[in-house]
Structure formats: C-alpha cells, structure tokens
Amino acid sequence: MADPPGCCAACATCLLCPYSCQWITAKKEKRKGLRTTKCDCSWFLFLFCVFLFTLVWLYFAIIILNDLHNFNEFIFKEKKLWFDWSLVLLIATAVLITYSSVLLVLALCLQLCGQPLKLHWLHKILLILTALVVAAAFTGLGIKWAEEWRSAQISLQATGPFLHIGVMGGMTLLAWPLASFFYRTRNTGLKVFLLLVYCTVMIALYLAPLGITSPCIMEENQLPPKPALVGHRGAPMLAPENTLMSLHKAVDCDVQVFETDVMVSADGVPFLMHDEELTRTTNVQAVFPERAALNSTAFNWTDLQQLDAGSWFLERKPFHTVESLSDDDRYQATIQRIPSLGQVLEAAKQSNISIMFDLRPENHSDYQNFVNATLGVILQSGIPLQQVLWLPDGFREQVKQQAPGVQQVYGRKRLQNEKEPLLHVNLPYQDMSSEEIRQYRQDNVSVNLYVVNKPWLFSVLWCSGVSSVTTNACQVLKEMKHPIWLLPSSTYLMIWIVADCVSFLTILWAFLLLK
C-alpha cells in the first residue's frame, strides 16, 4: 500500500513503532504484504470504546471531587487510615486516559497514512486491563456511592452545552480518518454501515441542544440572589473542624450560619463533635489509649478538655489548603480544644452568626436527656433564639414548646396535606431538582443544600435559586461574584447554529478533499 501524499515513510515508521511495537519500514511492510485485517479493525473498535469508557470515567472522577472528603472520612471510619484518595483517583485516571488517548491518536494517524493497524499483543492486554479497571470503578461507585450518579446528572446542567460542542468537534475531526478509510476499503457493506452510523450520530448531535437544559441559560436580569453560605463544621479547609477557630474563620468568610454537630458528655455537658469516636479529630489514642474506641458520649467534660482537637489538622492535612496556613494559624490550630455548646453559642452571639446543628447519636437510650441538656444551654446562653436552627427530628414538639423562637429545619421534603408548613429544609444537593428549588422559592420555603464545594456546582444551584448552601470551601465560594457562566438563550441558539454549520462544512470538505 503506497503512502498517501503528505505522509513520508519515516513518519509512517515512527507511528508503527509505538503502535505495533515493531520497527517496520515502509519497504519491508510492502515486502511482507501486511494489511489491516477484520481482526485488526475489531481491535481498533475496542480501542475506541475503551477510550470513550475511560473518558466518561474521567468526567465522573472530576465530579466526584466535590464529595471525596466524605469518602476519605468513610475510609478512616472503617480502616482507621487517613489518606487523601483524590491523589490516587486523579493520577490513576490520568494514566488510563493518557494511554488510551495516545493509542487512539496513533491509530487514526496510521489510518490517514495508509498503514496497517497491527496492534501489539501487549497493548491488547493493557487495553483489556484498562477496561476492567474502569468497569470495576463504575461498579464500586454504583454499590457504595450511588448518590454520585445523581451528582453526574446535576453536573450535566453545568457542562451540557460545552460537552455538546466538544463531542461535536471530536466527531467532526473524526471525519478525516473516516473519509480516508471509506475511500480505501473495497467492502461496500462496511462502507454503508460506517457511513450510516456516523451520519446518525452527527444528526443526533446537531439536534442535541433541543434536549439540553440548564438553569444557567437565562438572561442576566433573571439571575436570583447569590445563595448564603453555611459553614460545614465551620471553615474546615482553614481550621480544625468544629472548633472555635473554625467558627471565627467561617465568620471571616462571610458565612451566615455555622453548621455543626452536638453530643452530650457523660456528665451532661453538650459539646461539638461529629464522629461517634474521638480518634479522627483528637489525640484520644495518646491520652486515653484504653478508652479510645469508646463512644464520644462516654467521656466526661473534664476528660474531653484534656484532648488536643487541632494538631491532627496539621498532621493529616485533610485539605490541600493546610499547606498554605500562616505560622500564626498553625499555632492557633495546635491549641484548639473541644468546645462546649455554651462556648460556641457565646461566640456566635458576639459574631452575630446563626448556628445550625444535629444532636447525635439519635439512637442513644438517653436521647431525651440530651435534648433537655442542649435546650437548657441554649436558653441560658442569651443568644436570640432566631439565630438557632434546630435539625434533630427527635422530640421536636418538645423543643417547639420550650423554645418556640428556635427555627425548625427539616431534613426532608414537604408532604402533601402538611399540617404545619415547612419554612426551612436542609437536604443533600442531589435530592432536589432545579424545578423543585424554584417551586420552593416561589412558596417562600428556605432551601439549604449540602455539601457544595466546587464552583461549578455552586453556579448551578445559584442559577436554580437555592437559598443557601453548606460548604467546606467558604473561602472559595465567598469570592464568587457571579456564576461561572450565564448564557442568554438567544446567544446559545446562535452558537448552536454556527457550530452545526461549521461542523457540516468541515465534514463535507474532508470527504471531498480525500476522494
């Protein structure tokens, strides 16, 4: 097979070497009579599918980063091992997508040069392993972290218009190697099949914008107000979570609500702690090694005050932002102790910030006494009750009677024929659609969604009209003055028409030029 114009023998040889793992000159190739067989075509199709499969996983990996801290906490709870798994996820994904991309580019260039697609057996094995690894990753995601599928659906509202342009551009460029193959092969049936498949895909892409919806396709004057920020355990990227330092850092980020978790000590003192055990966020293993595995509520307040609640933050570096802390912040972190609810309420009152909390663990046999102790501290603190947002469902009616000024926040959607209308709801961001958010907003129901860390997600929820979001990254979202993108529908329509025309003319040019 002669090299087509513009493709020298040296170039063809350099392409064949990494793809086929053989140094075959064009002259030797002609002598051996090598050509692309049906088996070779099948392996090229498999390579293309693996590339697409890996590309989809790359997209999921980027989306998962918003919630990966939850995964890190889950692994610590199960294995008592802290590690930033985002590094593993990104590095492994980058390796897989780079490998499959390079092979695919080599194959397409070989086709344009009229060279045989003789994929080496080692590449075949590695491609199969790549497919298995990605399939295992998707399976694990579906079993252990199913809510991320809904995260991916939400992400399409942020990326849909741009993904459409990208896919259409890629498919348009594919017209060149496809046209080359179309004019070289003598198999009429294969020609018709490939052309029909390609045309069907392109027509679908040309019409795809009809089905793409995004809350950020709107006019500038229709944009709702920026959602208020709720600090998830304070500002956990800037200070140890659930500490007074974290509260003060959250105040510096213009956070309006400090979200936390409350437990009650063995001697009846409510204090801040998220985990059932103290091992992740204190040095309990060093101070009380024989009691480290006990529930947090098994310790009295005197014992809890002996624990260091900040040094772990510098040692384990739960977020990359720890590296950039100032010397003063590092020192402040080392002197943090577990704060009592009373101390936090006093700080919230002085900072004029609201506090929203869960009371844990709700399945405890002494839970009613926990509620009574917590209510007692709230009423004695002197904080305006409207600054307290009550999340726990247990004994809610009792709370309404003893502290009627406390704002009741519900962790569920409203029901039909609700006796008492819900004024505040607090839900995972995956649990509410843009349409539901708009409806709640029209009905004056405050909607807080958690945990929102990435600007793309914050932008989608901002355009949807959510009231507030709970976040680990208050220092990032604070700086956002506008959604990442906002596109008037007329502009989007113009981009759609221009992109379709350019794509069609490019494909037509490719088939006419290579004829």
UniProtKB/TrEMBL annotation:
<feature type="transmembrane region" description="Helical">
    <location>
        <begin position="192"/>
        <end position="212"/>
    </location>
</feature>
<keyword id="KW-0378">Hydrolase</keyword>
<dbReference type="GO" id="GO:0005886">
    <property type="term" value="C:plasma membrane"/>
</dbReference>
<dbReference type="Pfam" id="PF03009">
    <property type="entry name" value="GDPD"/>
</dbReference>
<feature type="domain" description="GP-PDE">
    <location>
        <begin position="227"/>
        <end position="481"/>
    </location>
</feature>
<keyword id="KW-0812">Transmembrane</keyword>
<keyword id="KW-1133">Transmembrane helix</keyword>
<keyword id="KW-0472">Membrane</keyword>
<protein>
    <submittedName>
        <fullName>GDPD2 inositolphosphodiesterase</fullName>
    </submittedName>
</protein>
<feature type="transmembrane region" description="Helical">
    <location>
        <begin position="85"/>
        <end position="113"/>
    </location>
</feature>
<comment type="similarity">
    <text>Belongs to the glycerophosphoryl diester phosphodiesterase family.</text>
</comment>
<feature type="transmembrane region" description="Helical">
    <location>
        <begin position="41"/>
        <end position="65"/>
    </location>
</feature>
<feature type="transmembrane region" description="Helical">
    <location>
        <begin position="125"/>
        <end position="143"/>
    </location>
</feature>
<feature type="transmembrane region" description="Helical">
    <location>
        <begin position="163"/>
        <end position="183"/>
    </location>
</feature>
<dbReference type="InterPro" id="IPR017946">
    <property type="entry name" value="PLC-like_Pdiesterase_TIM-brl"/>
</dbReference>
<dbReference type="InterPro" id="IPR030395">
    <property type="entry name" value="GP_PDE_dom"/>
</dbReference>
<feature type="transmembrane region" description="Helical">
    <location>
        <begin position="493"/>
        <end position="514"/>
    </location>
</feature>
<dbReference type="GO" id="GO:0008889">
    <property type="term" value="F:glycerophosphodiester phosphodiesterase activity"/>
</dbReference>
<dbReference type="GO" id="GO:0006629">
    <property type="term" value="P:lipid metabolic process"/>
</dbReference>
<keyword id="KW-0325">Glycoprotein</keyword>
